[in-house]
Amino acid sequence: MLLTALGLMLVVEGLLPLVSPASWRTTMQRIAELRDGQIRFVGLGAVLVGVLLLLLD
């Protein structure tokens, strides 16, 4: 099950660079310009949404 989740994550993560590499590059540049606290907040939000989805499953 863990490998399935990892595989699905890689598919989802790879969609934007596959479909629109220029947009992906711009997004990554904007993220790189954020302060550490802002990046941590986004990471925390992603973790909380992920845990919520796991609990709902």
Describe what this molecule looks like in 3D:
There is one protein chain. This protein is mainly α. It is 89% helix and 0% strand. The chain has three helices and no strands. The model has no long low-confidence stretch (mean pLDDT 94).
What's the structural blueprint in terms of helices and strands?
Blueprint: H1 2-19, H2 21-32, H3 36-56
Individual helix count: 3
The count of domains is 1
β-strand percent reads under 5%
Characterize the largest beta sheet: strand count, sense, and whether it forms a barrel. Answer: none
Helix/strand class: mainly alpha
Q: Can you tell me the residue ranges where pLDDT is under 50 for at least 5 consecutive residues? A: none
Tally of strands: 0
Cα separation of the termini: 13 Å
SSE arrangement, N to C: HHH
Evaluate the radius of gyration: 14 Å
What is the subunit arrangement here? single chain
Short structural description:
With 57 residues, the chain is mainly α. Helix content is 89%, strand content 0%.
Descriptors for this entry?
57 residues; mainly alpha; flat
